[in-house]
Specification:
By secondary structure, this protein is of the alpha/beta class. Helices cover 43% and strands 14% of the residues. Helix 1 links the parallel strand 1 and strand 2. The structure holds cytidine-5'-monophosphate.
Length: 263
């Protein structure tokens, strides 16, 4: 990486320093590489000369046998490793160490793994980065999958209203020493109120004006999400499936600049 990661990981339980104002607008767009082969993803990455940050999820990580992360780094890109770890604390902590070793910039876990899992994960990230002498990646958490509706939540024994769970779990994430959460744009103000402005909010479910919704139901434009307080936007199909991905990414970047200016 040609520049430091987002912010240093602090000891579990302490608040991370304010660092987001230093994040350039161009680094706030994370393009989701949801492809079955690295060859397809690489063609897009090489085309998107205006994008620095890419998300590697389960499909891309597995189809590339983990190589996507190293390949992106070799291309000078930043990586959000979206594998949403959820297991016993020791297993997740060890997995986090491996992710730090890969040199990712953001990684994530599920809050439903609990306080102990998150605390140990945070400590492992900080320790592994220190041992390697590298900046620690940001460790964030998924509160409630946005695919879960009221019935789904009740079936697994959670409060039926997504917002109630998001509020409680975002606070738990912060109390466990993690840097932020992945959240729907609709949850930004709730999380900002609960966790303050130094807490990272990474938002998928973003759609530029006029873009197809795909399977995303509750969306916001990039400008509105940034103005509402999102730190990073995850955008997939509106860019990856655009006739001109470079121009589509540029349009999102322009909306991000406008959103920042309107704050
Ligand atoms: O193509 P699209 O812009 O909908 O892609 C959004 C990306 O963000 C996908 O990789 C999707 O898995 C991810 N994501 C999401 N909603 C969440 C969490 C992750 O859409 N709540």
């Amino acid at each position: 990486m040609s520049e430091p990661n987002i912010r240093p990981h602090t000891a579990a339980g302490s608040r991370p320093p304010v660092g987001l104002l230093q994040v350039p607008p161009g680094h706030r767009l994370i393009v989701a590489l949801d492809y079955p082969t690295w060859a397809e993803a690489e063609a897009l990455v090489r085309q998107l000369t205006n994008v620095t940050f890419f998300k590697v999820g389960l499909e891309m990580f597995l189809s590339s046998r983990g190589q996507a992360v190293e390949a992106l780094r070799a291309l000078g890109k930043k990586v959000f490793l979206d594998l949403k770890f959820h297991d016993i604390p020791n297993t997740v902590a060890q997995a986090c160490r491996q992710a730090v070793g890969l040199g990712v910039d953001i990684l994530n876990v599920h809050t439903l793994g609990g306080r102990q899992m998150m605390t140990q994960a945070g400590a492992a990230v900080a320790d592994e980065a220190k041992n390697r002498g590298i900046p620690a990646p940001a460790l964030i958490a998924v509160t409630i999958l946005t695919s879960m509706g009221e019935t789904d939540l009740e079936e697994v024994g959670l409060a039926p209203m997504p917002a109630d769970n998001v509020d409680r779990l975002a606070r738990l994430t912060q109390a466990s020493g993690l840097q932020g959460v992945v959240a729907s744009p609709q949850e930004i103000s709730l999380i900002r109120q609960a966790c303050g402005r130094d807490f990272l909010i990474v938002c998928p479910g973003v759609r530029p004006q006029g873009a197809a919704l795909g399977d995303q139901k509750r969306v916001m434009t990039p400008q509105a999400a940034i103005a509402a307080g999102a730190d990073y936007l995850v955008v997939g199909r509106p860019i990856t499936r655009a006739a001109d991905p470079l121009a589509a990414a540029e349009a999102v970047l322009q909306e991000i600049r406008e959103g920042l200016n309107s704050k």
